Amino acid sequence: MAQVEPQEGGSPARTPAKALACQVGACTQGTAKFQGAGLLGGSGKKGSPPGEDYAFLADKFHDVVQALGVGEPKVDVFASPANARCTTCWNPENSAFAKQWGAQGLLWINPPFSQLSEVVNKIETDGAECLLVCPDWSARPWFAKAQLLCAKAHFYPPGSRLFETDKGPAGPTRWGVWVLYIPAKSNEMRTVRVVENREGGNEKQLRVVIRLTAEDREVVPPCTALIDTGAEVCLVKRGLIPPELFRPARQPLRLVGADGNTLPGGDKEVVLEVGLKGILKDSKKEAVLRIPTIFYEAEVKDPVILSYGWCQVRGFDIFPRLHGLNCKRKGREYWVEGVRSAPGGNLLEAICAVGADKPKRALDLFSGTGSAKKVLEKEGFEVISLDSEARFQPTLCCDILGWDYKEYPPGYFDIITASPPCTEFSQAKTVGERKVEQALKLVQKTLEIVEYFRPKVWWLETPRYGLLTKNSLLANVPHWDVDYCQFGRGGFKKPTRFYGSAHLAELPSFLCDGKSCPNLGEGRKHSRPLGGHFGAATKALTYPIPSAIITGACGLGAPHRKVWFQAGGAPAQGAVCGVGGGVGPNKKVRFTLPNGEGGAEVPPTDPEIAETEPEVDQEAPDAPYPDLDSQEFVRQKWVQEQIREKACWTRDPEEHPEAINARKRIEEKFADSVLSGVYVSDPPIRGPFGEAEIWVAETTCPVGRPAFRMGGDKLEAHT
């Protein structure tokens, strides 16, 4: 998304320039209401009564006020007398939003985070001077606007303890927290310097090609921008931008050139998005940097002037002799090449050669484990994810029914995906009362959002035999039917229907015939759905959507299935020929244990179906649960001679001690066992303490409510 991302790190180590990289401000301190499991690890709820509100800790309040050095706040805008940090406080009872914020002195604003969009708009409209407390939610539109208003900032990294309730200090924060100083709007004219085209001397001038857009609309053709190390503000040439886009300057300027003469302009400003095309230094791939910027209109020679302060705050290092800019953002390094004019001085050819393209954007509703987001990000999309559960770490953690989606303009997203909770619609729900009406509200809200944005592609997935498919709400919407067992190795069928844009009706159905499906287990049946008995699929196993299905549903390519081969290379009966080979799903791993060293002999691997080794240096087109490939769960292992058996696992960067101890017990128990045949891991299962895979008996099946489990007559072990 187009915005300046905040730099990582704690506030004590940040310079004022780096702190400005995330500018958002408001000045009033008091209580803040958090949406469930939002900023804190607790269970604060939107609209909770005053007794459950979160106030900024008193010592932290005094520390940040002193660190920013802008004076003591006079009014705590969202607070009650019991937890106010200022002598005067406003709260919903005395209508904080109904008051004029612009003439009250310095305000302390620690608002309900669900109202931050309204708060930032109010600050801008009233021209208030304030200290604003806000989370590090850089994908929200109000965040970019706050950046433009901010003059100073103080950052607290995730895990900081900043808030308290009437019951005592609250837990650590889930996200970083900013306290931003926003200066008041002023009618007094400020004098600023503009050097531009300095006469005399040997100073090199650096120009780069940029593209200026407003609300995803290009306002001028690609043009050059002068990097003016002597300028204090960013300027745009008078007459270049349509006049209807300008607004009166929040702080009128008196512009003074290098010769000391006053330049016309400085009374109007416009917010534009600067697009710069750079090269990633590690991969040498092109990337577009998009940065919202306030420009003042002025009578200057160059089309656009970018100030030294603009470069410094946004992480650009200027290299005039190398003729370019070096930028470090989010741990990645970019090189922006400067424009080298032809001998005649014509820059048009260079400008047209490096024009920036519009970014691809996607919205992932009810994102859950992030199956769609991972696929779309691999395809180069900027993805905004939304979910009400903070454990999934969505971009927007909120209830969709209360989300103000109109913060984004119509047409902002190219793709919208939705996986609303299917519990109330599914046939698997046999216990408790169905809350169909509440579930339908989520679907209706999704359709409302789709109607507003009108994306090129959208889809909503639901159980194929569920109640939603019998409802008239989606009766006339194109759909596509698939069974998950045709795309993965989970052992479960999961019949699903995708409703959405017209392209879905043109896709071929991928349905299980119940006979030739390689996922059929003992008794020629699939694993049971969620819940049930031994062998039932776990939530972590069934929630992810296979990547091939997402690719097809998003219109990014044709969905494909694996080919299952018999010994000898011929496709197995009933197999569908797709791209590449694969390993049979739900295939039990069988070991031969020598007599006297661990028990009776277990039969060797079934010879009727053999596994084909994937090609070297080629990613399998539909690896089991490819959504989890990025975490490298368990790779197929081909054992060609007898070796001592060891547990095979993958490791998370931070593992729970119980996971480590369980793995040690597995290794000790099977230390004297000898493996023969082929070792193939079953589908990956995510436990609460990490990932692990070990299957050592033909009766082993994918279960795992406990994190790790082992035992049985045949020495089976499984997660």
Automatic annotation (TrEMBL):
Keyword list (alphabetical) reads: Methyltransferase, S-adenosyl-L-methionine, Transferase
Acidic residues composition-biased segments? 608-620
Signal peptide range in chain numbering: none
Which SUPFAM superfamilies does its entry note?
S-adenosyl-L-methionine-dependent methyltransferases
Check the record and name the InterPro entries matching this protein.
Answer: C5_DNA_meth_AS (IPR018117), C5_MeTfrase (IPR001525), Dam_MeTrfase (IPR008593), SAM-dependent_MTases_sf (IPR029063)
Renumbered to this chain, region (Disordered) spans 591-628
Q: Which PROSITE patterns match?
A: C5_MTASE_1
Asked whether the keyword Cytoplasm is assigned, the reply is no
Q: Which GO terms describe its molecular function?
A: DNA binding; site-specific DNA-methyltransferase (adenine-specific) activity
> Domain of life of the organism in this record?
Eukaryota
Q: Does the keyword Cell wall biogenesis/degradation apply?
A: no
CDD domains, per the entry: retropepsin_like
GO BP terms: DNA restriction-modification system; methylation
For this protein, the record's Gene3D superfamilies field holds: Vaccinia Virus protein VP39
The protein depicted here goes by the name Uncharacterized protein
Instruction: Tell me which species this is from.
Output: Genlisea aurea
